Amino acid sequence: MKLICIGRNYAAHIEELANERPEEPVVFIKPDSSVLPKEQDFYIPEFSNEIHYEVEVLVKIKKVGKHIEKRFAHTYYDEIGLGIDFTARDLQSKLKEKGLPWEKAKGFDGAAVVGKWVSKEKFKNTNDLKFSLLKNGEEVQMGNTSLMLWKIDELVSYVSTYFTLKKGDIIFTGTPAGVGKIQANDYLSGILEEQEMFSVKIK
Description:
Layout: E1 3-7, H1 11-16, E2 26-30, E3 51-53, E4 55-61, E5 77-85, E6 87-88, H2 89-97, H3 103-106, E7 112-119, E8 130-135, E9 138-144, H4 152-162, E10 170-172, E11 180-181, E12 187-192, E13 195-201
Parallel strand pairs: 1-10
Antiparallel strand pairs: 1-2, 3-6, 3-11, 4-5, 4-10, 5-7, 8-9, 8-12, 12-13
């Protein structure tokens, strides 16, 4: 199982981090060891003083696929979820300045929160899903998949050009604006179409 993550997929988030708008999806991978075990608290790692939350809609791949055409992409997933791509922003900034890969800032243990899964059939349109992140009960991020630069089926097709998708693989589809720093004792919860999908305590 691999976690395939999409960066810079919401225009407002690109602007808030002063990044260049990409001409094609930005792709990076988190190892399966980065998944935070269910019911476990997230512990801020010693190597960073600036861990940021990034809430994202998730897609779980249900069968093997390679060079998937966009028109068939919807047949490769049945479930939609919500999660967090935790990012060591200070470390990422240092790595980016040197032109180095981001893995240490994105793929550390516990850096991926994967919430519960919901059948996509329960949603009228996966390209119009409202989602948000609450920190200590206050909404800090709000997004809608309609605002993605590349929609879910486009991402499935694009990613499969480079990586064979396998059953159980998860695509993190990008985060909207509003990312921010976490602190010890924070409580985060993710909402997808008015349903709580995950909650996590910060230590």
